[in-house]
Amino acid sequence: MANSAMRLLVIGPSWVGDMVMAQSLFMTLKARYPNATIGVVAPAWSQPILERMPEVDEVLPLAVGHGEFGLASRRELANRLKGRFDRAIVLPRSWKAALVPFMARIPERIGFLGEHRYGLLKERRKLDKQVLDQTVKRFVSLGLPLDEATTGDFAIPKPRLTIDRDNLVNLRLANMLSSRPAIGMMPGAEYGPAKQWPLDYFRQLAQKLIADGYEIRVFGGPKDHEGADTIVKGLPQAHNLCGKTALADAVDLLADCRQVVTNDSGLMHVAAAVGVRIHALYGSSSPDYTPPLTDNAVIHYLGLSCSPCFERTCPLGHTNCLNKLHVASVYQAILADRQREKVIVNA
Q1: For residue 279, how far is the Cα from the chain centroid?
Q2: Structure pTM?
Q3: How many H-runs (helices) and E-runs (strands) does the chain carry?
Q4: How far apart are CA 199 and CA 79, in angstroms?
Q5: What angle do CA 281, 287, 292 make, to 5 degrees?
Q6: In degrees rounded to 5, what are phi and psi of residue 277?
């Protein structure tokens, strides 16, 4: 293929889940251009995730905080990229996201119309939200020729992060994890409380599962640590790992779980990309728009008349979309999976 050795630059997204979903684009590009090199401009925090994607040849950290303009940092990075890439694909729809490839004078610059960035992009595509009705479809479409991209009828490769087994052994020892089969819990959601199942529900579920012979591992960032303590306090075989493990460590520890129970969050997409069985809890968001990209998931979603509202907090003040998603139904689904897989649990 004549273009197989092209040099591709992707301007990556700013959220954990979106970065995982971007792997579907990287896989698509590598399938079309097997000898291409792929560089990704991304926040520094995402480097450990990108390093678990074999399709990514180079990570180019951008030292700009979320929502920050950072013109000097963007200009410095652009200067380092001049002459190194043939095509840039800009995933975020913001004006500032298109600045680096423009200032780096990359000949081909592709992205969706948005925020008056007409002069920054060479190929400006109109986003049809009815056809490209999922975030991952939008990402993958930008790696396809326009005539294929606009149909919405194209393959979506499922993300698959590599696992570091040696790191996993060290993590199990360092965190004094047991030999019990583990179930992961992800009670956080960066977007807001309208996406968060009640902490007390997580705790009730943890109590039931520990009694059944499981170990509970609660994952999240430093901001989730206090809430996770509400789940694990006083429970044997329950571990609060929030803020104690790096993002790459969470990849390995999630891969070691039998099942996970998770809000619609970035870590949900990480769990999907390591192949663990997922019980995904949806409230204000929609499993149609940001589903876990795996065939190994159970979706728990009530689909109330007010759902999905996509709000950070419940505009009606009751958050019934999650409060009425009862512990018993999630617990029974986990038990059904255990029976289906014929897992032998030792107390």
Answers
A1: 15
A2: 0.92
A3: 14, 12
A4: 47
A5: 80
A6: -70, 130
